[in-house]
Amino acid sequence: MMKLLSSTFRSLKPIRPVTKLKFPSSLPPSESLQTDSFQPPSLLSSPPSSAPKSKSRWSVYLILSTNPPIKTYVGVTTNFTRRLKQHNGELKGGAKASRAGRPWVCACLIQGFKDRSEVS
Does the predicted model carry a pTM greater than 0.85? Predict the structure, then answer.
C-alpha cells in the first residue's frame, strides 16, 4: 500500500488558495500560469555543460523508503543517479543500512559542494 508523503510528514505551511500569476497585458490570457502547475527541474538530470568536468561536485541527499514503515537515509555522493540505483539494488555497492527500505525515492537533493568535508 503506497501512502502519500504529505500524509506522513504534515506541512507546517498555511494552506493558500491557488492564484494566477499575472503577466504584462501584451501576453494572451492563455499564457498565464497557475502556481499549482509548477514543475521543479529533474533531480536526476546532469549538471550544466558549463560545469567543470575534471572536478566532481558533491551532493547531500535524503531518500525515503516507499514501504511501510517509512524510513529515511541521508548520504553524500558525487553521482546521485548512480547512488540511488545502488540503494535500490540495481547496481552493486548500496549501503547495507538501506537494503531493508527498498525501493527508495529522492526527497531532497542539495548539490554544489566543492569537497566532501564541505558537505559534512
Answer: no
